[in-house]
Amino acid sequence: MGSCPGAEKPWDGCSFVLSAMRLLCSPALYGKVLLGPGKALLQLSFYWKRGLFCSPTDEYQGSAQAQSYKNLCLLLRAETLLVKLGNHHCFGDHEAKEEGDVAEARCKKWDMCAAEATTSLLQVEENFSACLARMDALIFKPLLQSEPSDQKGKENFKLFLLLNDQFQALWNLTEENYRIVKQKCSTSESFCIQDIYIVWKGDLFLSLYIQYFVTFANYVVVHGFEHATKSKSEAWKHHKTVLKQFLTDFTTETSMSLALYTVLHKPVRDHVEQYILLLNKLNEVLQEGSEKDIVTSAVKEYVKLKSFISQVLDEACFTKTLWKSLGYKFTDMLCVPERRLLEDSKNLPISASTNRSDRILLFDDVLVLIQGNSFQSFDLKLVWVDETCREKSAPGPYGLRIITPEETFVLSAKDPQMKAVWQWKLNQAIRQALNGKRDFPLWGKTGEGTEPSSCRFFTYVFRLESKFKNASYEGEWHWGKPHGKGTLKWRDGRNHVGDFKEGLEHGFGICLVPRRSEDRYDCYKCHWYEGKMRGYGICEYGNDMVYKGYFKDDVRQGFGILENFSAEHPFKYTGQWENDKKNGYGVWEDKDRGERYIGTWLDDHRHGQGIVVTQSGVCYQRTFHADKMVGSGILLLEDDSVYEGNFTQDLTFVGKGKLSFANGFILEGTFTNKSGQGLQTQGILNTSNEQLDERITKAQLGLKEFPVEKRWKGIYDQFLEFIHSGCKEEMEESFTGFHIQTSKELRKSQEYLFCQRGTEDVSWKTEDILEELVQHHELGSLQSYLEKALKSSLHPLGKLLKALTIAFQATYSGIGANRHLLTMAQEEVKYYAKKIWEFYQGLLHLALEQKGQLPAKCVDGEVSDQKAYSVVLPLILPCFYPELFMLYMLYHEREDDLYCQGIVDLSLFPDIKLLEFLDVQKHLWPLKDLTLTTNQRRSLIKDKCFLSATECLQKLITTVDPREKLLILQKTYEEIESTVSRVVEKDYKLPMDDLLPLLMYVVSRAKIQHLGAEIHLIRDLMDPTNQGGLYDFLLTALESCYEHIQRMRLHQRENCHVTRTS
Amino acid sequence: MMAIRELKVCLLGDTGVGKSSIVCRFVQDHFDHNISPTIGASFMTKTVPCGNELHKFLIWDTAGQERFHSLAPMYYRGSAAAVIVYDITKQDSFHTLKKWVKELKEHGPENIVMAIAGNKCDLSDIREVPMKDAKEYAESIGAIVVETSAKNAVNIEELFQGIMIRTVCSSSLASWCWLCRRLLVSSELAAGLGHAAVPAVLGGVCLHRDSRL
């Protein structure tokens, strides 16, 4: 900025001298001009160089000014152009003096002011317009006709065309507005602010001027005028001679280009100053008001424009000089019309630490380090300047650390001032590069908006050897590293879209990896942690397999489900993974064979104890060794017979074994199976046993082998870790799995980039969850809170329950419904309740801690278990009920059959007969309820007595909650009691002697299917504190009825037997 | 708050011997402020203080009819004590009692406390079972024995006190001497119970104090 001091100083009445000065600033002109000019000019330049223009008005009043003016005119001889130019100033000055008198009458109306302003504007514009016309005729037209043929020239010509376009636009705008106002002037006397179009249409004018000068500067930078003057076209050659007559002093080629440069920018530039003068005058005479404000701000804008123009031109000259001084090697690569040199280490010494660069160039878009014949350039958008040397290799006292995506180096200056200037210039250049707009800030300006943001968004291709080599990253950056959201793309088609942190994948991301042989991709939607997959993810493999589960260090680890959807060998594995392989407890379903393996795994093989259930209901437990069955096992057949010994996978007996038949016969011996000969055996058949022990036929598998605490550890571990890590919102999905809505959306579209939180009516942000936990930890609201939480697909507890449901179903649904698995399943559900309660406690503890409240002292395990059963179990039971009840039904199948037959028998009895049969005391019979219609005999009426109790008991199957079932039982009793009280007409407390027969009556009338399964489910899952209490008693009473009905049937059968044999 | 110890007690005995009457009588004079729900006379509870504890009796009635005998195990499983009731005016009921004792010994819970109650002692003039027979029988099986009258509220409290002391005999307050089959009660507990109650069930102090402890 030092090169054009005049630009900033508004010198009244001395614009012309200033224009001359402008010429002088250019060193190229300096020599040439001084050859021809008179002494005055010499003096001018002398004074100027010494900075003696502090009060030019005094010194250059009168003769000096006039002289210099004349001299310059002579000097340039471009009368057609420059005399006009001069005229402006002369007229301007004259007017100014004349109007000095006018200015006294400031009180004049706006009309007057506007009229005057309009008149002077018209005058100025008229001259300018004429000037532009001459520029067009003498310079643009001839140059446009001479399109060069060489490559370089063509490129420049394109720029010239652009310049012409801008010029024409500017000219047209001036002409057009001038004409309109002129017209108005001739017809009307009244004027308004709209007529001062340079104010009213200020933006349009400003932008056209800016565009013109920017284009002009681009043309200057590429040495456009030099090339143009050398044009070989005939038209130009001819024209050149004509032009030369005007520009006599510019006889050489160089001076010719200089003259062109001058005549193409100077008049325009000076015209801007004319505007400023004019507006300033107008402003002075205006009174305070909205119009004045508008004019004031317009003046400001034009002053800015003026300074903009001078800076643009300065930079263009500076850059042009650089290109001239650099070798072709560099200019070919670096020279772009729009690029501007901002600083050069030759001007302002600084050196780079690495590769000992000899020159550092700061452009408006790149930073270039030159060393010998090579150079390195860094896009400013990805350059960070760090002055606080935070790393070990401190950049020295006056160093600046330059951080770029792949390289970091230090620029060291000799002194703090130098460092400060470079730092400021670098930061300003970066900021402007980021904004995509040049704004020429004032030196030293600091504060808001003057520093470049450290977070950027940009695309970059990694070149150096690293994890990301050859990948292009498009996204957010922070201090030289991908940070925030972004996309990485490799040439082989691999790409990663997601969150980054300090240069590594971190957070959620979607990664596509092409498969080697096929034209398909593995698609990972997963959480990353410091560059590696960790936490919950979904991987859709290109071979139709899908993995949903946890990862660690890029491999499958923890709980996960792998499902093969292809038609060939479809399977599903639900269980534990270690090091990318099936390891630990897991369930494998072979969908082709209709088999399910429940057991332990080692490196993708069945290994250790395992249970196999098949479609046909057969079930066996064995030891496996690398997928092979070893040793002997127990085979539980569908017809209740049991085989203990060795057998093959297709269930043929081999070697020593013991086969126990359902009728009690036991065959013990050695079995062989030669092909085509069927099963052969040698052994002893024991027929002495009456019936096979229930302990064998109802044997429960897997209890010792797979203790409930060791099942699904992978699920619990993640939640535990989540709590231990402090329940960070951003880690929530990584630990507990995707939100259901999210994963649905992910499935819908592979291009879908980032998770969007689904909206439920309640906020399930982690902090809100913790807050709510604290609010609801009293027992009253706890129940409803937990119910809501467990139903939500976004609450961690809800997600935990969901995961457990999936694991449970994978084991016990479908072919897993086998009565030998009942205890395993029942234990598991109870354990879930216990774990969920534990996690709830953990969350609550954390929430209280975060609120600064001291969590209550840890309650002992027994109380905690009790809570789990009384609070949590009823809430989670609905999720497991279908599978669990199915297991109970299978387990109690035979008893239930017997009971059903009993019920059928009893249902044939009319009411009175049944009461009699069950020994209900006569005075308790509700005979009044037996209303008779004609043709009915009382003794034949059915289903009328104790109807209310019967109907109540039938509701037992309408709920899955053991608590509610027990309540129904209690109500049933109350109904019985109230009926009896009605009959005996007083409060009657039923002793068991009376109650049991009545209850039996009600049970036999209620005809509940699978009553055995119901009773046992209630007993197993009810709150253990009920033990020995009222509900236990009621349930026992019900159970005894159930048993009794079965036995009645047995007795009948035996009696039949006896009578038949006798 | 005092700790509550729950005590499941089941009632066995023929129909008509007054099983539920005994319980009704026992429960009638309620110590509780809040009356716990019951199932008629079939299931009742009563809370009684004992030392610094509260003992809650959960009393399960059973059906006395012969045809329901086979269902009894469901009711007495998990019981701490069984009260077997006979009618002193009916020899048959004493026979049934013996059957119950036998069954309990074979299939009942281990260490179940048995208490024999000869009910209807207000009708001793038509007595069929001599008191001596009952005492000797009880002695032979190590059971508590009392003759009660539900009608006149005789020995009802004492019966349940005895059960309570027996069931807590593993605690520091009382211990059971297996040689002389007597209960050793600390003075503290005895004071808590009231002196009158203890000798009615026990009498004397045992010399074999260390024999089983």
Automatic annotation (TrEMBL), chain A:
Alphabetical keyword list: Repeat
Family annotation (PANTHER family): ALS2 C-TERMINAL-LIKE PROTEIN, ALSIN HOMOLOG
The UniProt record lists the keyword Cytoplasm: no
Gene3D superfamilies xref list: Histone H3 K4-specific methyltransferase SET7/9 N-terminal domain (2.20.110.10), Pleckstrin-homology domain (PH domain)/Phosphotyrosine-binding domain (PTB) (2.30.29.30), VPS9 domain (1.20.1050.80)
Protein name: ALS2 C-terminal like
Biological process according to GO: endosomal transport
Gene Ontology molecular functions: guanyl-nucleotide exchange factor activity; small GTPase binding
Listed GO CC annotations: cytoplasm; cytoplasmic vesicle
PROSITE patterns assigned to the protein according to its UniProt record, in alphabetical order: VPS9
Source species, domain of life: Eukaryota
UniProt cross-references to Pfam families, sorted A to Z: MORN, PH_alsin, VPS9
The VPS9 domain, residue ranges: 908-1054
Automatic annotation (TrEMBL), chain B:
GO CC annotations, alphabetized: early endosome; early phagosome membrane; phagocytic cup; trans-Golgi network membrane
Keyword Metal-binding: no
Alphabetized UniProt keyword annotations: Cytoplasmic vesicle, Endosome, GTP-binding, Lipoprotein, Membrane, Nucleotide-binding, Prenylation
Subcellular location: Cytoplasmic vesicle, Phagosome membrane; Early endosome
Gene3D superfamilies from the UniProt entry: P-loop containing nucleotide triphosphate hydrolases (3.40.50.300)
Domain of life: Eukaryota
InterPro entries documented for this protein: P-loop_NTPase (IPR027417), Small_GTP-bd (IPR005225), Small_GTPase (IPR001806)
Gene Ontology biological-process entries: cellular response to insulin stimulus; Golgi to plasma membrane protein transport; phagosome maturation; positive regulation of phagocytosis, engulfment; receptor internalization; regulated exocytosis
GO MF annotation: an example: GTPase activity
Subcellular location, principal: membrane
Membrane topology classification: Lipid-anchor
UniProt similarity note: Belongs to the small GTPase superfamily. Rab family.
Protein name: RAB31, member RAS onco family
